[in-house]
Design a protein that fits this description.
By secondary structure, the protein is an alpha/beta fold. The protein contains 13 helices and six strands. The protein folds into two domains: 90 residues, no CATH class; 157 residues, Nucleotidyltransferase, domain 5. Strands 1, 2, 3, 4, 5 and 6 form a six-stranded mixed sheet that branches.
Length: 312
């Protein structure tokens, strides 16, 4: 098959791979270069590019990825493969990259996007799984009610950039997110917006330690009225939320809901065909990274829309 230069340059997968290679060569490969040992047959960059292909083509398993790549000469040319890694090679290398390299690359793309961090939002979204998935748990969602599956806990900037995330089973309550909030210590966040599930004294205390102002909707629990709230942190939250400026700022929480919608509709974030905590988490991780890469490509073009490519 003869592949012209125009066919490659106009390919969306090529644009993602080119951007990834540029960033990888400039920032990542130098810090992870090993002077000893046998050279890897497939570089970390090539494996990551294969995973981007997997997400873009909505491929569910590694055997399917191996088969799809073997029948796609254009993708092989773009990645620079001489032969196709088998599914067992993919499995081993993906685990190594996720344990050692993924979060470094993810944080790098977040920093390159230069997100607007003054007002951020925290929330979770339901990710349904197969009812036969033995590792999934039952949880309750506002939209779905009771469901079986997992949860993505996410912190997003006001310009829809996911700066930190955590993946759990569906039975983990939203307020159990101390680990996720501690990851925000390196970011200059002024206000963190959350729904009523985050109206917790422990979270207010943690955010206060990190110099972050947590603003949440009011969770009355068993109290009869707002006047029954006694904790000082929660009292201040109520007063600020009811003020004109508090109401105006809290409306920005809608950005994280829009981000979840984009990730599910455009990137197939929710995939009930996936079985097991590890597989589902891996899918979520690489989907978020692909979103960041495409967001950076759009940002360099001056495109700020979250619409589908044909509507931008």
């Amino acid at each position: 098959m003869i592949i012209s230069l125009n066919m490659i340059k106009d390919n969306p997968f090529y644009k993602v791979c080119k951007k990834l290679q540029k960033i990888f060569d400039k920032f990542v490969s130098k810090t992870n270069h090993k002077k000893v040992g046998r050279l890897k047959k497939y570089s970390d960059l090539q494996i990551i590019q294969c995973l981007m292909y997997k997400v873009m083509k909505k491929i569910c398993c590694l055997r399917e990825l191996e088969w799809e790549l073997s029948n796609d000469a254009l993708a092989i040319k773009i990645i620079g493969l001489t032969d196709i890694p088998d599914h067992s090679t993919f499995s081993i290398r993906i685990k190594q990259i996720e344990d050692s390299l993924f979060y470094q690359i993810y944080r790098l793309f977040v920093l390159l996007l230069n997100p607007d961090l003054r007002v951020c939002s925290i929330d979770s979204t339901a990710l349904r799984s197969s009812k036969f998935d033995s590792e999934a748990k039952k949880g309750k969602s506002t939209r779905l009610g009771w469901y079986k599956g997992y949860k993505l806990h996410l912190v997003s900037s006001s310009d829809s950039i996911p700066i930190a995330f955590n993946f759990t089973t569906a039975n983990v309550y939203d307020s159990n997110c101390k680990k996720l909030i501690k990851e925000l210590d390196d970011y200059d966040i002024f206000v963190l917006l959350g729904d009523a599930a985050y109206d917790s004294v422990k979270l207010f205390e943690l955010c206060d330690e990190l110099s972050i102002n947590l603003l949440t909707d009011i969770n009355l629990r068993k109290a009869k009225s707002i006047d029954s709230i006694k904790n000082e942190y929660r009292k201040k939250n109520v007063l600020y939320l009811q003020s004109p400026i508090g109401e105006k700022i809290y409306k920005k929480r809608i950005t994280i809901e829009r981000l979840f919608a984009v990730l599910k509709q455009r990137y197939n974030l929710e995939n009930p065909r996936l079985y097991g905590h590890t597989r589902y988490k891996s899918h979520v991780m690489w989907t978020l990274l692909l979103y960041l890469i495409e967001k950076l490509i759009d940002q360099e073009k001056g495109v700020n829309s979250l619409k589908f490519p044909w509507n931008k």
